[in-house]
Amino acid sequence: MNMKCRKSYRDLLVNPGKTFLAILALVLGIGGIGTILVSYTILTHDLNANFQCTQPAHVVFQSEQFDKLNLNEFIQIPEVEIAEFRDFSLHRIEVRKNEWIPLWLYGVESFEKYQVAQVFYESGLSKPSQGSMLIERDGLKASDITMGGSPRIRIGSRTMEISVTGICFDPAQAPATQDAFIYAYTDKDTYHKVTGLPVNQRLLVRLNEVSSGEDVTKKVEKIKQAFQASGINLTSVYIPKFNEHPHQWQLNTLLFLIGTIGLLAFFMGVVLVSQLMRSILASQVRQIGILKSLGGSRFQVLQIYLIMLLIIGIISGIIAIPLAVKAGIAFSSFIAGILNFNILTFSLPVYVYISLITSSIMLPILLSFPILWKSTSVSVKDALNDYGINGVQNIGEFKLLRNWSLSESFILASRNAFRNSRRLSVTIFSMALGAAIFSTGFNVRQSLWDLLEGVKNEMRYDVQVVLKSQIDEEHALMPFKSIDNVKMIESWIGGRGEIQSRLLSTDKGAGIVALPADTKLLKLKVTSGRWLSVESGNEIVMNQQAWNLYRKPEIGSSVTLLLGNKCVSKKVVGIIEEFDKAKIYIDLEQYNTLFNPQRLVNSLMFVAKDKEYSGILKLKREIESAIVSSDLDVLYVMSQSERVKIIYDHLNIILTIILLLSFLVLVVSGVGMTSATSINIGERTREIGVMRAIGATPKKIYKIFVNEGMIISCLSIILGLILSFPLSKLAGVFFGNLILGDGAKLKYAFSLVGFIITILITALFGFLASTLPARRAIKIPTHKALSYE
Amino acid sequence: MKETIIELRGVSKIFHSRERDYTALKRIDLNIKKGEYIAIVGKSGSGKSTLLNMITGIDHPSAGTILVNGTEISGLTESKLALWRGKNVGIVFQFFQLVPTLTIKENLLLAMEFVGEIPSSQRSKRVHELLEKVGILQHMDKMPSGLSGGEQQRAAIARALSNDPSIIIADEPTGNLDSKTAASIHKLFQSLVTEGKTLIVVTHEKEANLRYHRIVTLTDGEILNQKTEKELL
Question: How confident is the model at residue A568 (pLDDT cuts 50, 70, 90)?
Fold first, then answer.
């Protein structure tokens, strides 16, 4: 080995602390970005690959007249690639004793040969025996249903048991656990027998040569004309998002978040590595002079430090790359578990490894090159005259501190903290950024929690029963008359049964909710205009999503409301903020007069006497029990707590990851601070000797350094918390857009818990960052400290 | 008549600072012949080290010319100067300045590797010869911190001789050593002079006058006097 290599690696060995920190910083940086790269590579590919391998339908047609359709001829239409009947109906299934959730039941043409929307075998039978069903695997997580069991299902007014003979996997569906559904699949005969519904009324179609949603729309128009020509009237046409999994938005958000925060962690790792290189070079300036005096050219000296960085990079890469790959795969598996898809990428593309290896080797060199270039340009004379940190520059006399009668050691610590203003700014800024992101994570979480609390407060009913069809109010209320824990029941009606959570509805258009204008059970926040009035009547209120959907009509303007075959003109009087899909609110009396002369209802809003959580759950169970004994055909029964939980579950994964990643940023900042303090102390070893020589005890010196660290921590916390305010606002806009729709933003919320945790963790990091190098510094004997160069 | 190896003509050095300009050397004229053993003496701040920095190319003059071994060094770039220095000048520092993370042998090998004058195959042999010459062969695989001050200075001298330079420049080489060790170092220097090396030593030691061929005394950046061996006697 040549002497330059030997010097490089010995220099690394002689400073194990700094070398360890440099490697740790790089491992964190490369590990962080590597994990993201690996998971990004897997997730961007695999969710879509899972989705695509099902051969998803481009369009779903529904008609009661498909008996006129010759499927073989239909498939010959140039626009059509393949088509298959797959009937579908919505029922309810008992997942635990008196606990029912929606059941999405499909009647499958052939379990042996799927043409469109394939479902994959997991366990049990691949084709359910007559009278039994397959259950989608994700639904098992949210229920006590097991293979071989026979859960009760409620179809219309009938309750029956159907055995589960197999478990399947349907990666094209939204995850059942998040939306609290169960997906089940039966053969057509069973479907018909169990539901009593006609079959072959829902046609899944894959189209030829489509590369965008527009292509699909154009070809669907042509197919609709073909249906019309064949005398087939369609009852609905549903075009799902082109080639996109229903929860792709959630994955995209996650990828965006982890990408952003990962890059930030990486950036901070980068700052840290360059800081450490600066520190290593700072202690070697005199040696650079000696090397040059021996005849070493700048390039030769540069080589020594480049080799040093290469060694650091290789070691970091050896540690970080396998960790990043493992962490990336683990993270992807975690997400795959939540979004219910299988990991298909078993070997990562070569470019991932090349990128990681190149990053490990080249990044420390590229990042530290400016410092190396500058340090090796020092003249022999300047290098030989270097004695480390310079004096205090332009910081005044700290008169204020003196006025406060602070101890000399605190004043000295304050001065020391400000000695290298550039390093101080980098340290404070990176630490503050870590604290700001960490605190923002908590604030956004608080904003979402407030939003959900708002939902609870706005919707003052406790349990909602939504019927599949509109029925007479007296008939609807009859089964519940004997339930004791009911304070009141209010009946509402909704157009097309779309008044419920967007999580249950996939159709386009806005739901119509007809409710008493003076209802006490709904107090939504009016963002513009006003709520419905009892007197004027001829008016509507839209939620933000509906307002956006209908191109933001002016308050006071008239819009035409189409319901069934009736068209009426209504005045928009207000916009409300609501965590739901597009909805239009109208006074019940008006609605009944115009569209519902029989005064039918389809939603029952229950208010419990006992408002405790247990009381509401008990009420829900009693309602479920009453439904089982009645002839009511119920779409779903949901308590507000469950509703909030479902919404929260959708967002919880995002929030958890924000907090985890922001904690990572804070850890990297903490390591950065440790390195900066270590550099500060290292540069002042001679000063420590002088202080010791004039009588400073190790305890006093230790106190000075710890005070210094705490001063930096305090400044970082203050700046971090100030920064967290605009950051939280920005995050509010991002999440608001994501959750509430275009233009909406989450209200800024201050999280006291987050505030306290941020302060405690930042202060703890500050303390550790200063106490560790300070303990080491005070162990150096005075004579060694004095002769330190 | 011996040939001149170092020639300084009207060399001045002014250090500029915000408060004031400070003249460290004032129009110095100095000729040093090949094989001469010269001491540069003077009080602290007299300009001795600055003069040494001029001769080694560590610092550049504000005015005047410096010819060393026929090369006008003030015109060389930093990189060329480093190579020139490695080939022509061996520097011995007061605090030895050995690379602390390399063994004694490796310190010498590094200096040879930088300059590349000695073929790789001969370097190890030359290290042995040089360390034997300075009397620390047995310590060649030790780290500098494992050696006494005198031994470290011997190692530094051996390193200065690594590339066989014709000029050795020592900045207070015995300032950090006890008198007995200092005497042994001077003895080593004298043997180098006998071998034909030109040796320039910056020193405070007045009592050691008799060792040198010439003593140049500096005061306030000017040569106060130059006493030859005969004059000293």
Answer: confident
Q: What percent of chain A has a predicted confidence (pLDDT) above 70?
A: 88
Contact at CB, A297 and B83, closer than 8 angstroms: yes
Query: What domain range includes position B177?
Result: 34-60+75-232
Of all residues in chain A, the one with the smallest CA distance to B106 is A3
Alpha-carbon gap: B2 to the closest alpha carbon of chain A (Å): 27
Strand-pair category, A132-136 with A163-169: parallel
Taking each helix axis as running N to C, give the angle between helix A350-376 and helix A298-339, from 0 to 180 degrees, rounded to the nearest 10: 150
Distance CA A678, CA A21 (A): 10
| Closest-CA distance of chain A to residue B232, Å | 33
Asked, for residue B206, whether it belongs to a domain, the answer is: yes
**Does the distance separating the beta carbons of B58 and A379 come in below 8 Å?**
yes
Task: Identify the weakest region by mean pLDDT among A146-155, A565-574, A639-648.
Answer: A639-648
- The per-residue pLDDT for range A720-756, each reduced to its tens digit, is 889 989 988 888 877 776 665 555 667 788 888 888 8
Taking only the tens place, the pLDDT of each residue in A621-659 is 889 889 888 888 888 888 777 767 666 666 666 677 777
The yes-or-no verdict on residue A30 having pLDDT over 90 is no
Residue B205 domain-assigned (yes or no): yes
DSSP A394: S
**Cβ–Cβ of A4/B110 closer than 8 Å?**
yes
| Residues on chain B touching A7 (C-beta within 8 angstroms) | 99, 101-102, 106, 110
Q: What is the pLDDT of residue A768?
A: 83
Give me the residues paired with residue B152 across strands: none
pLDDT confidence bin for A393, thresholds 50/70/90:
very low
Q: Do the Cβ atoms of A298 and B159 come within 8 Å?
A: no
CA angle A552, A555, A559 (to 5 degrees): 70
Counted across chains A and B, CB pairs separated by less than 8 A come out at 81
* Nearest C-alpha in B relative to A295: B86
Which of chain A's residues have a Cβ under 8 Å away from the Cβ of B96?
none
| Within-domain flag for B67 | no
Q: Which of B53, B101, B114 faces A294 most closely, judged by CB atoms?
A: B114
Helix, strand, or coil here: B227?
Answer: strand
Tokens found for residue B227: 């006493």
Does A373 touch chain B if contact means CB atoms closer than 8 Å?
A: no
Query: Which of A14, A287, A292 lies at the smallest CB-CB distance from B82?
Result: A292
What CA–CA distance (Å, rounded) separates A247 from A178?
A: 10
What is the arithmetic mean of pLDDT over A391-400?
48
Q: Is residue B211 part of a domain?
A: yes
Q: What is the DSSP letter of A459?
A: B
Domain count, chain B: 1
The nearest CA of chain A is from the CA of B229 a distance in Å of 30
* Closest Cβ–Cβ partner in B56, B91, B106 for A3: B106
- From B184, B165, B203, B185, select the one nearest B38 (Cα to Cα): B203
